Amino acid sequence: xxxxxxxHQFAHCESGxxxxxxxxxxxxxxxxxxxxIGAGLFxxxxxxxxxxxxxxxxxxxxxxxxxxxxxxxLGVVVKREKFRDPLVAENRLDQLLAxxxxxxxxxxxxxxxxxxxxxxxxxxxxxxVVIGKVGDDYLISDPIFEETVRCPATDLRKARFAKGxxxxxGKIYYIETMPQQFDLPKAVVAGIKExxxxxxxxxxxxxxxxxxxxxxxxxxxxxxxxxxKQTLLHLGHxxxxxxxxxxxGGGFRFVYxxxxxxAAAVLNNDQLLELSNHCTGIGDLWRDFALLAxxxxxxxxxxxxxxxELADLLRKCADEEQILFTRLQVAIK
Amino acid sequence: xxxxxxYELAKLIIDFCNVEDxxxxxxxxxxxxxxxxxxxxxDSLDAVEVVVAVQKTYGVRIGGEKSSREVLQSLTAxxxxxxxxxxxx
Lengths: 333, 89
Description:
The complex is a heterodimer of chains A (333) and B (89).
Chain A: H1 13-24, H2 31-37, E1 41-51, E2 54-60, H3 65-73, E3 77-81, H4 86-98, E4 103-107, E5 126-134, E6 137-141, E7 149-152, H5 153-160, E8 172-177, H6 184-201, H7 208-225, H8 228-243, H9 253-266, H10 271-297, H11 303-331
Antiparallel strand pairs in A: 1-2, 3-8, 4-5, 4-8, 5-6, 6-7
Chain B: H1 5-16, H2 44-58, H3 68-71, H4 75-88
Helix pairs in contact in B: 1-2, 1-4
């Protein structure tokens, strides 16, 4: 049994899954639009939260937030279920598939055999859509991959009940009903407002533009505080979160620029086109930071001289983001 | 493959990433550019270097919904991406 599901490959799993599910249910949209309506863009540097024993740097909102906010703002009714018992969870999934419903699932990447071994790390916030079952194999639309993939039931069970941080606990989600009409402009404005608030007004110093400045200060101190190996591990971790973890590059800034370009047409507001270009420029700045950082990690640039330059690049990113989101707030008033 | 865009790209990667003992003509067109099977021996940190080198040389930005993961799958994928972007300009 296989649901006729329009699978498309995207940059990021959660916005990709949301886009594929919305497209299936008749709302044609891009990944960038979903990311923007879902207010996915953010920044936080939280040294007390560890990922792979290194401080958390994130360029997006928390897992699940993009799906929840994008669907809510579009008036889509969704259902989420969690389970204690893997067998009950599997039966429920089979029941929904038999009813012809594609089902989103949170999984642990490490247990998914269709991932190349080099990419199978312990991350429990990976999203995919289950679109059918043939024998003991589930058919899966994973937006990270070009084609749909198969996954043995035993492996999917392990992935849905992976232990550790962000443990999925069998979580599934699906669209129950779509609205008669969408108020896209309203959803776009709501998404933009939330991102501006998050980047400019979060009252904790580790989030938004303040968080970028905090990272600049901390990063500058790493060579003095940490040994060389740890210094390079900390730096490499920031670049990986920025360029690798499905961000579309530039820590999601390029995806957000694409959203602003679409938003300009939806809201008939040319100022957003200019701000989209500004956002692309900021993505390039983040990439300049990643380039120098990767050269330091690879021994192609000296540590001592480069860390103050890296911190200056981060401060420049923060300054430009402050200007961008302040102007964006005004542009949508 | 010499004198093709794929050859130019292999040479560019070798130059920018300081890859030693590899000739651009010897790189299989479908081999992954990044990861343990990369004939260049590149890892994910080198990917940033490749992405920026491509942008500076060809004026094509890899990012947004077409992620570097897809574009850097092979020399063929990278060359096709550049050709498509150039055509749409």
